[in-house]
Amino acid sequence: MELHKIILRGLLAYIFLLILLRLSGKRTVAEGTSFDFVLALILGDMIDDALWAEVPFSQFIVATSTLIVINIAASMAGYASKTVAWLLEGEPRIIMRDGKLLRPALRRERINEKEAAEMMRVKELERERWAEVKSARVETSGRTSVIKHDWAKTVEKRDLDKLKEVKE
Amino acid sequence: MFLLSTQHCNCVLLCRFSLNPFIIKPVGALIRRGEEARYANQKIFPTLLPSGVTVSSNGYANGRLGMETQELIMTALRALGVYVLVLVVIRISGKRSIGQFTAFDLLVALMLGEVVDEIIYGDVTIAQGAVAIIVIALAEYGNSWLTYWDHGFDALLEGKPTVIVEDGKLVRRGMRKERINKNEVMAELRLNGIDDLREVKLAVVENDGEVSVIKHDWAEPAQKGDLGGEMAKQKRAATEGKDEPPADKQTTSKKALNQEG
User: Fold this and answer.
1) Buried b vs exposed e over B79-108: b needs ≥16 C-beta within 10 Å?
2) Among residues 83-122 of chain A, which lie with CB inside 8 Å of chain B?
């Protein structure tokens, strides 16, 4: 076994991937979407074949750079065209309006009622407080965003003047 | 046994009868995987020999041994195909972020990642790879509907949320179930900006492992509707003047959380 070759290949693969990822920008694999995650897994799996020399190094370089270049191209196309963006990441979907769950939307996202309650609970909204919600969405990143009615928003400093008016 | 051209036939037989099989570098693997092929692959594919490469009597190939440009182009094309396939699989799985992953989804993602690199390197044919990916995709799609339909399958796959704090008191049974001790509960509450257990109306370990904390009404930040005036009227209208809905309608009820007794 030629150990020094493994060291060399390991270092080369590491540096190559590092450069490639830095070139491709922050949002390539760090966005937390499931696709980026799987892409990172694939890139990681491709290293080990190159490390044990099961594939020639040139093939490793071509394969990884193709994946990353396509990914950059896809995100650029998504930036330029709304249709491509929709194909790549879908669209935000409103799942609650005025405190009521929108069942067709939930069905399309395959979120059942229990899971919806769970998502709201994580946002500190138990069912008795759903009336506070103006709209809730599942964003393309998979996170839940909640917009509350004006009366349910937390008090800001500028509201304290109104408090004085009411008292007077 | 092998259908070989006469030109290669002798050497292949010599290879197979050699006393030390590990010395012999398999011709097919040599061409496909570069000089340092690890496997003593018994199958030999003379059709894969690039032009100008001959096989000597000791089983080594002579000639140009590096990757052919054509093979590198094929690698890039396979990577492109795999990229599109994986994108489709993830879009139909309906899980947008790893935040939505259950433990099992994570496993599926790992599986997908492992399968795919063999395809890109050409270790398996594109047809085999596509079949494998499509099977994984269909299983994931079916699974997402099964969990949606809420007939107990989701509880089996994803588990049930566990109450660990209720009305300012630790729930030992739930804590035991999640193997989370008092210090860890307090740490979770601190992450939510709470250092007084009494403020907590309910803390639940959700299926994805996240802890959601609901405070008592008196510990919530004041809302614009609490200050009186027009906003207060709107708040009363929306909540119908009631502070709380009936117990069985509350997310905090045992029934809604699927907890037994």
Assistant:
1) beebbebbbebbbebbbbbbbbbbeebeeb
2) 87-90, 99, 107, 109-115, 117-118, 120-122
- Which position has the higher pLDDT, A168 or B38? A168
Q: CA-CA distance, B237 to A108, in Å (whole number)?
A: 32
Chain A contact set for B94 (CB, 8 A): 109-110
pLDDT band at B43 (very low <50, low <70, confident <90, very high): very low
In chain A, what percentage of residues exceed pLDDT 70? 91
Q: Under the phi-then-psi rule, with left for phi > 0, alpha for psi from -120 to 50, and beta for the rest, what region is B59?
A: left
State ipTM: 0.79
Contact B121 A55 (CB under 8 A): yes
Residue B90 has pLDDT above 90, yes or no: no
